[in-house]
């Protein structure tokens, strides 16, 4: 059984689930927002018997102990019963639900894409940059700081107009594009005391979105250099020239080594290729999107994700 931890309407998991269903795979989709109210659980440990991880979903009871692979893909928070009104009581109910549900999932002795705790850690960019350097990837000069004087010094060293600043996580509610630091921004550096900010040397070049599925790499190059916003290709995906591309073998090997160090089976990597042929690592998103890259390049990424899950699941059950 393949367990997909995501939610209806998440278009990437929707597309892969459709592939898995066509392949005749036993599939269970779990939305964490359905806990604790809509999805009920009963976890049992008894002498001489294997643990049971029973879920009741839409009137169907399933023992998660039968799972052979779990795909951890963009999840939502727990939805606490609205009858619980007080904030501290809601927080307690959510915490208790997390202890039970996450503990149940972590106890499953099956393959994961990606392991939940590895996925969580791999979202942290300081860890990514450190490990990327250790495996031999080149990282642009980068500063994370809450100190105005450090940011001022970094911009002076790199040159005004040669530094970008960006957020650690771009959520739907608080989405921010990557921006060049301007003279006006330098007058607001005292605001750094409120939260850390990433400053990074701006690297002109062609964007590379590298989708890694198991040991396979699918590279889409997007040339946004002559678009209306070359600083952040996400803003102008439809304007730039895009095509499938091939990475040098040594870069592929280093990216796979990084995935191994992070404990990931899936990752969406962003890099820049300069005009003189340098490859610079920007980040890896363990839950990154690929449908736009697939549409632009024609690379069969959705099918590759489904195929990898099937490989981890093992032979399909007979009729």
From TrEMBL:
One of the record's GO cellular component terms: cytoplasm
Organism expressing this protein natively: Paucibacter sediminis
Keyword NADP set for record: no
Tagged with keyword Membrane: no
Xref: InterPro entries: ATP-grasp, MvdD-like_ATPgrasp
Alphabetical GO biological process terms: SOS response
Tree of life domain: Bacteria
Protein name per UniProt: Alpha-L-glutamate ligase
GO function term, MF aspect, one: ATP binding
Gene3D superfamilies: ATP-grasp fold, B domain
Keyword annotations: ATP-binding, Ligase, Nucleotide-binding
Pfam families, per the entry: ATPgraspMvdD
Domain ATP-grasp: residue ranges: 129-310
